[in-house]
């Protein structure tokens, strides 16, 4: 039995813009659930540049990516949003009418189903997915011999494993899989690794003891028939090539962003972006909104601050779908006792 | 002012007017060639990966450790650079780069 959740709004993407939408919706008494494919909140800010300073957030002369996310989390705390992390929205289906929209949203990982009155897509550049190296014919081996993540270590017992990359994932799996693999080879483009020093040291000692191989270079081709890998051709910087015998290849090249299933939800798209109006930031489907980097309109600027503005305006229209009978009164947090009560700061 | 020459993934060579102080990634993007530049030039994504013609390699500032870390996440050649880390100056008039392939 899969989980079934009824709520006012589902927000797809828990980056800064999705988080601030929670605040704007919360002020209007609208409840929401957020879904994100990453295991943490913050989107690009937390995944790509947590330590990088940002200088163009109004009111913050300087804030880091992670600092901004932490502050936004504190800001939405009074509204108690529910987060569904490590989940990707697979399908979005309209089950209402244009006047009274209703949607069924399903996620992939453990198949949660949501029924909601509005959907806000705040998915930035799309969903984070493992970067696939541009190697000819690599797709033919995916799922049988090429894997971008380790789900079950046992799959690699007694296999000749080739790990490619020089970051934490590559090094962690190197030292974890080495004891059970028949032979483990680590391939990296240079003799420098950006992983935890003790893991790098452990790898180096395994190499020194002859218990695994380290090669410097790049995979230039894959060998093997019928989706079964038999070897990888390694090209060194000097142009020389040699074959590494392997049954399995695990490339760890970090994450990239792909539009993913969003393309299949019946929304108009323009160069992988979702066109919206600039009054409500609503898509061509009434009740589905798009805010932040994923939308487009004349004059669009891909700035976090634009996404904040877009969320505030979208919330106004969402209110009409969630509370069709209620008149919306415009209020300021500085003066409205009712807003201050919602924020838990009323005197 | 000057120009840069960019060979796209179909092998077609484009000559683009360059602007001093712009990053090569920004020049390529501004002319509408297919370069992703996902992170916007923050050296955080490697989607602006290019191969620099050999005769130009020595004329560029060497890559920072940060750029090397990002180059670790793509399939490189010795001529690999991230175009967001190359600031265009008149000394780079005629710079020759090729857009690197993107993964699926």
From TrEMBL, chain A:
Catalysed reaction, written as an equation: 2 reduced [2Fe-2S]-[ferredoxin] + NADP(+) + H(+) = 2 oxidized [2Fe-2S]-[ferredoxin] + NADPH
Oxidoreductase listed as a keyword: yes
Signal peptide interval: none
Keywords: FAD, Flavoprotein, NADP, Oxidoreductase
UniProt record similarity statement: Belongs to the ferredoxin--NADP reductase type 2 family.
The protein's assembly and partners: Homodimer.
Keyword Nucleus among UniProt keywords: no
Annotated source species: Microvirga arabica
Positions of FAD binding: 36, 44, 49, 89, 128, 293, 334
PANTHER family given in the database record: THIOREDOXIN REDUCTASE 1-RELATED-RELATED
Cofactor(s) annotated in UniProt: FAD
Protein name as catalogued: Ferredoxin--NADP reductase
Residues annotated as domain FAD/NAD(P)-binding: 8-298
Matching Pfam families: Pyr_redox_2 (PF07992)
UniProtKB/TrEMBL annotation, chain B:
Entries under SUPFAM superfamilies matching the protein: 2Fe-2S ferredoxin-like
Superkingdom to which the source organism belongs: Bacteria
InterPro entries in UniProt: 2Fe-2S_ferredoxin-like_sf, 2Fe-2S_ferredoxin-type, Adrenodoxin-like, Beta-grasp_dom_sf
Pfam families listed in its UniProt record: Fer2
Coiled coil, from the record: none
Alphabetical keyword list: 2Fe-2S, Iron, Iron-sulfur, Metal-binding
Limits of the 2Fe-2S ferredoxin-type domain: 2-103
Name of the molecule in the record: 2Fe-2S iron-sulfur cluster-binding protein
